[in-house]
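During data preparation, a discrete fold description was generated, and the record follows.
___
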Amino acid sequence: MKYHFDVRGTVHPLLVLSATLLVYVLIMPRSITFEDAGLFQMVCHLDGIGHPDGYPLFTNLCQPFVQLSIFSTGVFAGNFLSALFAALSCSVLFSCCLSITKDELIAGVAALAYGFSATFWSQAIIIEVYSLTVLMFLLCWRSLLSFTQTGNIPYLYLAIVVYGAGVANHWPLMVLSTPALLVTVFPRLDAILSSLKSPGFWLRSVIALLVGLSPYITILLARDAAISVYGDVDTATEMGRYVSRSAYSDQHVVASSVDRMRYMLWLLVESATQFGTVGLHLMVIGFAVSFKKLPTSIAISLVLMYVGSTYLLNFLLNFRYEAFWQAIFKPYPVVSYLALSIWLASGTRLIVDWLSGTGTRSARLMPWVATAIVVLSVLLANLYDNNRRNTTWVEQYGRSVLESLPKDAVFFANGDFEVGIFGFLHLVMGVRPDIELRSWDNLVFSNRLSSPFSSDDIQQARRSEFLQGVRRPVFGSSVPLAPVAHQGAYYRYTPGVAPSVERNPSMDLMLDHLLDLYTTGLITDAYENHFAYHQLMGFARQYVELAITHTDLSKVEFERLARSQSTFPDKLVLLERLLRQGPEKDGKVILSEIAHAAEAQIPAFATIESLAVFYEFYGRIMMMEPADSKRAIRYFEQSIDTYPVPENTSICPLLDLYQKKMEPDRAEKLGQHFPGLNCR
């Protein structure tokens, strides 16, 4: 006997919306975060233009909401808007599932489980475009389901409008999800084919699509925006470059087939961890019976939905397989995970039906109990990582840097993370109005030294001219163009003065806080881990150099240095400095101990460049007397396998070892793989 989850309106889309929104608001961050949060906050507060492809739908909704909000001076309004879109998405998902299955249990479990799934939840609580992307997809899908069930053509026009709006929000994910949407209407294919013969149908469809795409007009109309990644968009070519995201095409090394295979396995693991252990088992069960329990068009649609922004996207991207690019990739499959939530809910229904077949009195409670267990298991599985209510260290870091600068300083922010953090604090929150904030890459801010599309040589020349002519003290975290005084978190530019290392007491407390977070594992966000890793490396270079070149470090400073050496990035910097200094008595023993300890501490988010350097260092240590050529070869090979580019400085010593060990075949193969090397 089958028991339906009849709650007579208790479990309702409005209840789903309220429950998810309440949880989101309770645990969303109250301060600035990474990803694109800083940039979106600036765009929404200051009527700016986002980075390609502009996300005009999100921007047009966010700007009036944030600026008219009572919370407009902080991050809450922007984060709340994302949470609202996410909660609405869960509500629409409930409606979609109910339309397909006529089963409130499946609809309720799918909607709530998805709302508390790992990746979607992480994006729901920060100012980002992904929750709106999901909402647009689901609204389009719901319209197509209505068309399929009723045959009313206006539902099709509505779907086209919403599809266009989805494209105007995040076109890559919407386009990748298109096959899943098209399959939905296969039962009405004859009606569609018949309509295609009508010029009126084509005209109304084109008008509907243009209405959906209309937010892109705001990018063309924007002039002299305070925040604009590349400046005004004046021509069709510039608009095409902006919308196509072509500027990102050369930002990373082309992925190898091995990279893509590793990403496929990674995506499988990511999918398996979205809903916790209980959710995984139910999801597998639901997938196994989906073609039997669901309409064929829906079952196929779910498969295409899952494949679109996961495995298909993997083959379109050129991401190397490393922690940073994994963090970039991580939110992309949010639409794909909708399919997983429906399979999970279908699996739950199957188990409930089986248990309810006992005929016992308690069986009538089974739908309630099952729903509660499944939803709570998903929520608890992902709560710790997504509870970011007390996450403040990113803002603390930004404020620490800005407040440590001398009066009227110039500061060059480098990279999206820094531009977002410092830009939001300075331009929106009014921190240090006396300083002049610039972007090293001439992006985002309007005070550009040159066009961001200028050649590297021109940009370098403009920076040099500025550094030579400016009378204000200049700081930055960028690759220095002039001699610098290294201060840990950033540099002070010192043209005409010898390079040096300086104490920076105003940043010591930030370093202590960063060490606390890093060593205790309190940083769970991938972006924050990446940033913390690099910051610790910068502080390590400062403190190691101070310890070697200064004899007047205080007891507290030596204790801070010793504590910092408990982390992998600091050990890596120490190895670099000691190897450059040259071996002393028992040098190999000491360096081997440091390298061995570092190897046991390699974090999952270490960059492949730094890993390659570490293995090279280990190989060089093994070449010290008494030399261990076998282990040296192993570490040099590991370095090259980690980072197989001609710039890897492990290639030449490895080639030399092959030749000395009388292994001409391996030497020849290595030389052929990296032609044109000059190892003399």
The mean pLDDT is 88.
